[in-house]
């Protein structure tokens, strides 16, 4: 079944010509491009990458076997190494000469181990005697040495994302020297030592390139060391040791990943997860260094977060002539010895002609992690997590795997902590922008809203409203869950949106739990709002006390005077409306016509008389005359008053 695999190879791999006696395959770690070089380039070079929209194809003169080939960033300049002493360059820039030019390494008797493009025009040679940093000048078809450093080198690693080159030094190879590159400068960082399991005598190279890699995990650069042990009753086998590499401090050992097996391994990093492939068992192990492990205060030991499992099978279509009937695809040999693994998530099979990105599928993880708190911790760190988390929440609330209230509360708290973090960051940004604009500068970046930010609208739409609408759901549990989510929001100091309170009220009314509704309102468990008051007013026909509860709520709000008046007038309580207006002030500016209309509609002549007289007296206080002005449009009401009570009942104008 598809769903049981939590790792898979991408469905749209880069395809290239298989490696053969006439076709050599190279990989460029900076551009993530595969080069297929036929006959030294004489019969064609094809360059493909996962993010390239167009394939680059060209031919070059066969000057011998190609050792290494790479484009500069942006595919502006091609660099080709054919000898151990020099690298040749070819411009791919419009209006520049396309003839080759070369640069030998400066150090006498040095051998070039490799080279790395730092930018579109900066390249670094790594030799067995040091490092040389060059500026390429394509228009002059030459290179300018910017800086060099002498040091004995066994092998090197390059992290293009961090612009750091790591050199293996000393006889044993375990002293690593990092160099950082930026804007035409080369900075030597503090060297550090990788712990060896056994120190041989006499000394020889113990730490090899295949056991070390560099990768960014949760925004931090780590050096990953595969520390091999034979598995015994007292030993858990090979470990992956993570050293945290920074530009300012010495590299420190921070994490140990326990593999509980020995043999051949390869490491990828996918979505901030360390994935360790084990060739012997053809399975992969997943580790999350952000999930709590055992610690001694300085180093944290982690076990696999999930049970070991194979990558999902991948089928390769068979290429057959068009005249021949199509053949069924053949399974790709997973964990093949011909696989090459590159950081962060690249797997290449030169023998099959495929370059994949390794991907993680989150839905299968849901059933593999039984501890729901740990599951949420895991999912919150992943890029495409929102819909999976919402499905976990819904699963927790109903169905055969329904969680207990304490477990549900823990999940809500974890989600709202992440939600609050984003709200605070967004508020800080808004304040910085406001103060920055007043000074004419804005330096702070707007916080990115990741899928881990699950707000009240998400929970309401995808979880709580669906859950509350269950016909057969236990109403007490439904109410408890809704109140638990509101409690969690309050605990995180997040303002609860009115639609959540409305959902609680509708749930209580649906199950005739009016006593509970009354208590929630009386003790202010549900916060006051105009929307809530309007909902209560609509419930009056089935629960008469709701009318007074709504009015009390509107009065407490003190910003809902107009709404209170409208409610009272709709109930034909005209005198109550006038008394309320007098109590809060501002009755001088109210519309007489509105209240006279409401009094007229009741058909109660004495009520109309009282209201009419109220406004006559108001007119006297305001203007010294009881007469309504033309702008008040009360002619109809004056006529009705005369009809019912006679003209002599009108207040007379008092002349002094």
Structural account:
The strands form 8 sheets. Strands 20-21-22-23-28-27 form a 6-stranded mixed sheet, with no helix packed on it. Strands 1, 2, 31, 32 and 33 form a 5-stranded antiparallel sheet that branches. Strands 15, 16, 17, 18 and 19 form a 5-stranded antiparallel sheet that branches. α3 (386-397) runs parallel beside α5 and α14 (605-623) crosses α15 (635-645). 30% of the residues lie in helices and 25% in strands. The model has no long low-confidence stretch (mean pLDDT 85). The chain is built from 15 helices and 33 strands. It has 656 residues and is of the alpha+beta class. It starts with 6 loop residues before the first strand and ends in an 11-residue tail after the last helix.
Report the sheet-strand fraction. 25-35%
Helix content: 25-40%
Structural class: alpha+beta
* Mean pLDDT, all residues: 85
How large, in whole angstroms, is the Cα Rg? 38 Å
- Quickly count the helices: 15
Number of strands: 33
Task: Name the shape in a single word.
Answer: elongated
How far the N terminus sits from the C terminus, by CA atoms, comes to: 100 Å
**Largest sheet, strands/sense/barrel:** 6 strands, mixed
Low-confidence regions: none
How do the strands of the widest beta sheet line up side by side? 20-21-22-23-28-27
